Amino acid sequence: MIIFKNKYFIYSLIASILWLCIITLGIIKLYRPLKLDFGTKYVEVSKKSTYIKSYTKQFNELMKQYRNRTARETTESKSSTDKKRRLYRSSRDGSIGRSQATLSLRGS
After folding, report:
1. pLDDT per residue over 7-30, tens digit each?
2. Side-chain half-sphere of 6: how many Cα atoms within 13 Å?
3. Of 6, 35, 48, 76, which has fewest CB within 10 angstroms of its CB?
4. 71 contacts: CB under 8 Å, gap ≥ 6
5. Angle, helix 78-93 to helix 98-107, in steps of 10 degrees
6. Residue 4 gets which letter from DSSP?
7. Predicted model pTM
8. Given 3-state DSSP classes, what are the helix, strand and coil percentages for the chain, each rounded to the nearest 5?
């Protein structure tokens, strides 16, 4: 018991034990998160994945609408496209204002 009478030895022993505890807790935290962090992290991840799923669903629906609209526009009758061309030409010449041209386009 002569070894334990030296106070510096006791201090170094306590310091080494504390360092070992800190290192082991760090390793455990790396490989297995603590209970408090475990719940919040995985809830956040699941929320993000549901957000991503909903955004992709919305994007796919918008793309379907866009494809349908472009398909409809290409299959329009020739007379309506001629009318739009005439309106565009006249608005470019300056005989019709831009707002009137867009209003007349919407009306057709």
Report:
1. 788 888 999 999 999 998 888 777
2. 6
3. 35
4. none
5. 170
6. G
7. 0.27
8. 85, 0, 15
